Amino acid sequence: MRPLLLCAALGTGGSVQTTSAQTIRPAPIPPVTSPGQVQPVAPGTRPAPVLATLRLAPAVPGVQKVEVLSNGFVKAAHALILLPAREATAPRALTLATQSVLGAFRADPALIEVDVSVYRKEKYQGFGGPLPLLTLSVPRARQPTFQAALQAGNYERVWIQSGAATPEPELTPLQELERLPVFFGTQAELLFQRLTQATSQTRGGVRGGLLFKGTPTRRQVALTVDDVPHPLYFPLVLDALQRAGARATFFVIGRNAQAYPYFVQDMVRGGHEVANHTFHHVRLPKLSDAQITAELKRTNELLTRLSGQPVRYFRPPGGQYSARVLKIAEGLGLTTVFWTDDPGDFQNPGVETVEARFARSLRPGGIILLHDNAPDGLAALPDLLKVARERGYTIDTAGALTR
């Protein structure tokens, strides 16, 4: 007899909600293609705002756009370069990336950082698709010296894809949002999850390898940011946190960390916590044990190598998990972390809506969910941090909630 497959959304208040699409039905774990998802760009309830752009003079060949964004205090820029196959070499990519950095700083000397991503034109499928050929990051303080460091081969904020491009599986843009944790499993497994969550909501702390909430007796909340790092948004998120003296847990997509490794090191220098969000941002319950293990283990190993620290926390993309996912995560030394406060920044509801939802849900032991690459979340972040401080909350990492 085949096992029952149960899909249910676990509410953050200890209740369990089900929909007509989330019913008990006899089914094996469905077959899937190789893991791999394009990171979404805020599908949302309204279109994402159009970002400002810079015009480089002289123009740099291959530059598609140079986008500029502010966190309310400072601005950063990101240049996208697409190279045809005949020009897609590391030396050519580095030359054009360098010219783009210099041109962006000339166009707007107030920028705190310029980042560049160079892709093979024929392979480009947007951010989160096949990896870039080269990435480069130049903070304003490094502008006078980065060219000499590049020539000497000791500039640490450049990444070049080694060897031939690795074949990628067929990728489909992911449109699902992290709304509520969703559990896949049998009735007995679901009942156990309900009990675990209800206990966590009352008492807080890690239970059964999961963290739904911190202790309700301390005026302390965890700030968590998913889908990190994005080369335009992430430097601005770090800047906003530094100004507020706040620390966060960053749930990192492995393939993003691979292409922008220097951002992981920036996290550590800022006192933040580096956590696992799978390698390809893929939904895990439909994968085999071997695929789940590979998604988590590969990310753990990469983040540990880049940060010099063990990875202790994990969040499943979309909040979708199962008993198999939990068992594999625990076997790799990972605690699975969910959230209590989702202001919906990835839906583009408007900055005021994000702020109002956050303020309404702020509670001791809470876990706040924001996303990298979400304009409304970035714009709201300074005010979110200010509101929490004014109400007497300490803003810290998920790990701090467990201590």
TrEMBL record:
Record domain NodB homology: where: 219-396
Record-linked SUPFAM superfamilies: Glycoside hydrolase/deacetylase
Keyword Hydrolase: yes
InterPro entries the record matches: Glyco_hydro/deAcase_b/a-brl, NODB_dom, Polysacc_deacetylase_ArnD
EC number(s) recorded for this UniProt protein: 3.-.-.-
A Pfam family per the record: Polysacc_deac_1
CDD domains: CE4_NodB_like_6s_7s (cd10917)
Keyword Magnesium included in the entry's annotation: no
Molecular function GO terms recorded: hydrolase activity
Domain of life from the UniProt record: Bacteria
Annotated keywords: Hydrolase, Metal-binding
Protein name: Polysaccharide deacetylase family protein
Organism, scientific name: Deinococcus rufus
